[in-house]
## 1
Amino acid sequence: MIGPSKPPINVQDGFFYQLRKDNTLVEVMLISEKKRVGRIRRFDKYAVVLEVEGREELIYKHAISSVASLGGTPTASPAMGTVRTPPV
């Protein structure tokens, strides 16, 4: 007997949602080795909108190597402080 299928766990959505909700300062490391520091305003399946120095930047997720919270919120714990996205 096959039971109801569980929805897939999406670590990125939960992580980004909590950072956005808490208005946490984050450091986004790009695969080009550039760092962007700001606050997540919006995100979807393909991109993140980061507010940096009063302006919004659209960053495609395939260009991100890691995201780390810089705030003192519960999401800054060692277990959830960084999410690495594999290059496409």
## 2
Amino acid sequence: MSPKTDNGLDLGPLDLDLLRRLSEARGVSGDEGRVRRILVDAVGGRLERLHADGMGNLYGSRAAKPAAAAGRPAPRVMLAAHMDEVGLMVTQVGRDGLLAVDAVGGLDARVLAGQPVLVGPEGLPGVIGLKPVHLSAPGEREQPPKIKDLRVDIGVDSGEAADRLVNVGDGVTFATDFQDLGPTLLGKAFDDRGGCAVLCALLDQDYPVTLEAVFTVQEEVGLRGAQVAAHRLAPDCAIVLECGTTDDTPKERDDTPVMRLGAGPAITVMDRSLIADRRLVAHLVATADDLGIPYQIRAPKGGGTDGGRIHLSRAGVPTAVVSMPCRYLHAPASLLAKSDMRHTIALLRAALQRLSWKDLER
């Protein structure tokens, strides 16, 4: 049986196989093709006019049902989730066969040393290397490493051998297998393959609004695909589906976490890129309260999402962001709670069923 909310709302099953395939797909910013192909297969029968633009954003529409009465058409709601993940890019092949790399998106070098990776279009195995701690001077041990000090070792002994296997510009992704841990899921790239999986789940139903579904590219390097997509669609409003960072692990200062794992979807009020539309925030909160769906308000600290570009498009787009809490974001392995995913899907389905022009009035 599917779990239910306190008010008896059926949360339905999760498509964990789709999330696994999305999580394990390799797709650093600018190289999202493998992810896009998975999503085309997943949503092809549920969306009209499925197509990609010149940047690689994937679009599809789902018309309002029942159709709006004569007069004003139903609101067009842009639902956005990004396909790309943080990773590395090969910048140089050394004479010793080791690969110099640079970050694609926001990466913390402290979590990278010793991590297995996959390099280039063929997924060549490698490991991220750093000077061994027992060969480091005391002063070096006390300083966090920098990405420029790291090398990817693909197990060859010369630059000539490496040149036959790798090109400058090749992407490097973490070699992390998806795992079901019971109440939680472990994997890479939940930011934002988790949001992509949620968007796919929303397409199982009809709504009284028209959905403009967009799987965007290059979010991690400047919200670039979303800017193009929002300008192209000119929607009446937008909801961004994300996985957001938690800081709920033990720490010295007992302050409010940005969001907590297992506490329900997080509704953004403000981040560094966006002040969320108050009408949409109120609609989401009222929906959750009415149906007994647990949720949290994302503490207004840092971060940014595709909403930062969407809301500035053309004459302005009312925009909200709903995030699933994700522990160890932008790391080789992250944790996502199944309950948060279920409650996020339930909240968004209900909010879309209830959304009307009245909710967007000033």
## 3
Amino acid sequence: MIPREVLKKVRRIQITTSRMVTDIFAGQYHSVFKGRGMEFDEVREYVPGDDIKSIDWNVTARTGHPHIKKFVEERELTVMIILDASTSCKFGSTTQLKSQLAAELSSVLAFSAIQNNDKIGLIIFTDRIEKFIPPRKGLKHVLRVIREALYFKPEGKGTDISLALEYLSRVTKRRAITFLISDFLDKDFKKRLSVTNKRHDVIAVTITDPREIDMPDIGMIRLNDAESGDERTIDTSSKSYRSSYRHTALERLNARKELFRSAGIDNIDIYTNIPYAKELIRFFKMRKKRLS
């Protein structure tokens, strides 16, 4: 039984994000994510002005009258959200956890998909596959996706991005627009990312909290690694430590960007302390410009 407060939160997210999709992203998603091409619609008699290259010579020969093949744009897409539910995502120093922001982003993408008449599916992962919802259409289905993204209680703690991408390839035979939402605190997934992107259109959505880049001066504190359980005590009053912490964090972020670039992956950088709408719009505009 889903708690009442969770259902209220799902409803709030539904109202907020569906309005955002209508007001901000109307047309953006549609112009960027198009069908794979043209699909056959029907054969009809030739009329003056039709392109002669479309003539179906077999039907023409059989009937004795010129006929053409009519094609229409293949609009329906499959959109998959791969959501990181590892313990490191249960962190937040601002108004919301990384996992809560990830659930809201999943909602925006899901509502954009159904508004475009696309199917939407969900894979939740940690160091194992936690949940799979096959892609379908409809508001009821989208609300289920949002509920699972927000409420699901994973069994695992770690992060295995390669496993999630490999699972995607097994359960999704058709090419899919794939949003991989994670803090990407994992290693050795570049090869699988590159392989998956050859079959699917993978977009990495990175979630970062500002405290993962800058450590405030708050004296002696004990840090706990949420996934490994390792603990250590550090002195945040040390200026050299804070400088080293920031340097290491920026190196990690730059290495991540280079990994995406070398794998041919588009990425959207989202921070828990900055409204994400502008970053999504920037991404849509970038993709549209590249396709034009």
